[in-house]
Write a structure and sequence with these properties.
The complex is a heterodimer.
Chain A lengths: L7 H8 L20 H26 L4 H30 L12 H31 L4 E2 L3 E2 L8 H35 L20
Antiparallel strand pairs in A: 1-2
Helix pairs in contact in A: 2-3, 3-4, 4-5
Chain B lengths: L1 H13 L1 H4 L4 E4 L5 E8 L2 E7 L2 E8 L2 E12 L3 E3 L2 H7 L12 E11 L2 E10 L2 E14 L2 E11 L19 E12 L4
Antiparallel strand pairs in B: 1-4, 1-11, 2-3, 2-11, 3-6, 4-5, 5-7, 7-8, 8-9, 9-10, 10-11
The chains are: A mainly alpha, B mainly beta.
Chain lengths: 212, 187
């Protein structure tokens, strides 16, 4: 079933089939596809990252007002949610080997892919940690989703606050660059190389014939 | 007999300054504090006024009837975060530029078993009558005044405009003070 070729039309049909999910849907990763858990974590973290980037810039640019405070509460709360999710993702990834890459790629490509993914994990973890440090040094009241107090990591200090703000900004730009490469590479695999690299991370989708 | 009585009376009158309780007092900055706690979406935020003076006339043995004057340098309002401290100086909060001082004048009274302070607080251009209980204890010839009470910040337009609603910052602010008064002649 995995290797059955599906035209774009058939692919759409499979995605909305009233008989439910394609019969190659697994919770755990296989050699050919990411499992549903990995997919769920991947896409929810991805969506949250885009929301966080928008919230972060809006919060920083807003004039001092109750709205600015509300934006920061959402930004910080969702940022810590991403931290929790990405640590779960990392644990799941370590316990679940990744699907194999397509066989006919140049030698540098698997190396670059692995490096990019390691870098993504490092950046996605260090962003909220830097944010946590800013919050601690700023000494402003905050509760995660207005409920859970956040332990402080450093004493209140304007100098530390500005230092960590700078770190958070630099990591933001690094993450933006690496994400552009990551998304560009996925689209390249799909539209130029016509392999399953993108498809296997998509839920409700079957791999095409060009499977390894 | 009359001469003895006259002599004793003269002695008492002449020694009166040595025996009378000191009546004029002023606060010791290092041993005095005025702090406040506001609530920000449920989280307490603690701050203080670092510079203030209390002066007054109190008979230490019979405090009721004593009078006090408190003058606060509003620019000394501070919280842990320097960004928040700066924001508090602004026009929508304490408006330091236009209202650099707060003043409280009041009198000590006995009310049932409590000692209370009743007076008028002038803050950010608003005058309000306030009354609250306090503890007065004697410490080595000094007086220690301690107490806590609640103020409504909107009574003084502190947190005005977009900050007026209590959904972000509660309307009630808790004030806590500990003032050490020393007699005037001791410097």
């Amino acid at each position: 079933m995995d290797t059955l070729y599906l035209s774009p039309a058939r692919l759409r049909y499979a995605a909305v089939s009233i008989h439910g999910l394609p019969n190659n849907t697994m919770l755990r990763n296989t050699t050919h596809r990411w499992g549903s858990i990995a997919q769920l974590l991947h896409w929810s973290i991805a969506a949250l990252i885009f929301v966080l980037m928008a919230l972060g810039w809006l919060a920083v640019l807003a004039p001092l007002s109750p709205a600015k405070i509300t934006l920061f509460y959402w930004h910080k709360s969702l940022g810590l949610l991403v931290l929790a999710l990405v640590l779960i993702r990392l644990g799941w990834r370590i316990g679940n080997p990744a699907p194999k890459l397509p066989p006919n790629l140049p030698r540098w490509e698997p190396v670059l892919a692995r490096l990019t993914h390691i870098l993504l994990y490092v950046l996605i973890v260090s962003m909220p940690v830097a944010g946590w440090l800013i919050d601690s040094a700023a000494g402003v009241p905050f509760k995660i989703f207005w409920v859970l107090p956040l332990p402080t990591l450093v004493p209140v200090s304007a100098a530390l606050e500005h230092a960590f703000e700078w770190v958070h900004l630099v990591i933001f730009w690094a993450l933006a660059v690496v994400l552009t490469g990551h998304i560009g590479a996925a689209l390249r695999h799909h539209f130029l190389l016509h392999n399953n690299v993108l498809r296997r991370m998509l839920p409700f989708t079957q791999n095409g014939r060009s499977d390894p | 007999m009359n001469r003895l009585r006259l002599f004793t009376s003269l002695l008492l009158v002449l020694s009166a300054p040595a025996f009378s309780a000191p009546t004029a007092w002023h606060s010791l900055a290092d041993s005095s504090s005025i702090g406040w706690t506001a609530r920000w979406q449920g989280t307490p935020v603690k701050g203080q006024f670092k510079r203030f003076t209390v002066t007054g006339h109190i008979d230490a043995a019979h405090p009721a009837g004593g009078r006090l004057l408190l003058v606060v340098d509003i620019a000394s309002v501070s919280v842990a975060s320097s960004d928040l401290t700066r924001a508090l100086h602004g026009a929508q909060w304490f408006g330091v530029a236009n209202f650099p001082q707060a003043r409280f004048t009041g009198g000590l009274e006995n009310e049932s078993k409590l000692l209370i302070l009743r007076g008028i607080l002038k803050l950010k251009g608003h005058d309000k009558k306030i009354v609250f209980p306090l503890e007065l204890t004697h410490k080595n010839g000094d007086l220690l005044l301690q107490g806590k009470f609640t103020l409504e910040r909107n009574d003084f337009s502190i947190g005005s405009g977009q900050w007026k609603s209590s959904s972000m910052i509660a309307a009630k602010v808790r004030i806590r003070f500990s003032i050490r008064l020393v007699p005037d002649h001791s410097g």
